[in-house]
Design brief:
The chain is α/β, with parallel strands linked by helices. Helix content is 42%, strand content 18%.
Length: 330
Amino acid sequence: MTTNNQNAVTVTVTGAGGQIGYSLLFRIAKGEVFGDSVVNLRLLETEQGVQAARGVALELADCAFPLLGEVTITTEIDEGVKDANAVFLVGAKPRQKGEERADLLAANGKIFGPQGKAIAEHAAEDVRVIVVGNPANTNAAIVAAHAEGLDPRRVTALTRLDHNRGLAQVADKLGVAVRDLKNMTVWGNHSASQFPDIAELTLNGEKVADKLDEAWVNDEFIPRVAKRGAEIIEVRGRSSAASAASAALDHMRDWVNGTAEGDWVSVALPSDGSYGIPEGLVFSFPCRSVNGEWEIVQGLEISPAQQERIDANIKELQEEKAAVVEAGLL
């Protein structure tokens, strides 16, 4: 379908034929992120994945979405990100059995470096980039480093999935609705070291920390949120897809339209030095979207126990950064 509309947005999804891409595309085409704007989709895939992407495009056509404009399928990076207003970098090399994390970082650097360069050269000036493919934080750092001339804060990584998992766990524990919880925070890296933090979390305006047993928070809640992906693989037999796609949509929708009043969400983005996080390190912070831009929430008090967990994430991310620097990717 071809639709001319001056308010149209162009959205690129890499790994479009995969499970997460499949879960993303129909909801984007339905208008869940960009409202009443016509959406032109660019499906970027590898040679091995392009046939699956063609099948997805056929299904998108069959849905007869009123807001769906052009659907382009390509294996060429430059064409895939041309004029893109939003880019979901989903496709990544999965970690293989026995593979070291440094090897995975190096392999993904060869994917995300060229994507960053192409985005800077061919995407729209107002492009918003979210990295979903793991290791997401460091992949985002690689994208930003290669996107010469692009504001690094237009490149983010997904920790909204961890944020949503944290909300769901607390809501279940307290027997309340997720919608009544606000001000959840995930600090740091999208990895097992991440720090889901309930210190500022409120239920109908009242902090919930006193309602939750400290042993449950430290011994069950934090590790379960951090290792939820592995739990799903164990139960389902494959990795999270629909929940990851939903979180990516939440992230982009809030970035475009603004966060809910009185609330914030978790976003991994290049640090500006807030909370002592080294500048430029892609780190998850509590953020609000204001006038279409992410702003880190300031002024939160950090206890020694919180700081210890934050410091562990700094160390891990610095080690990841060192690995890709050594590989010549940063």
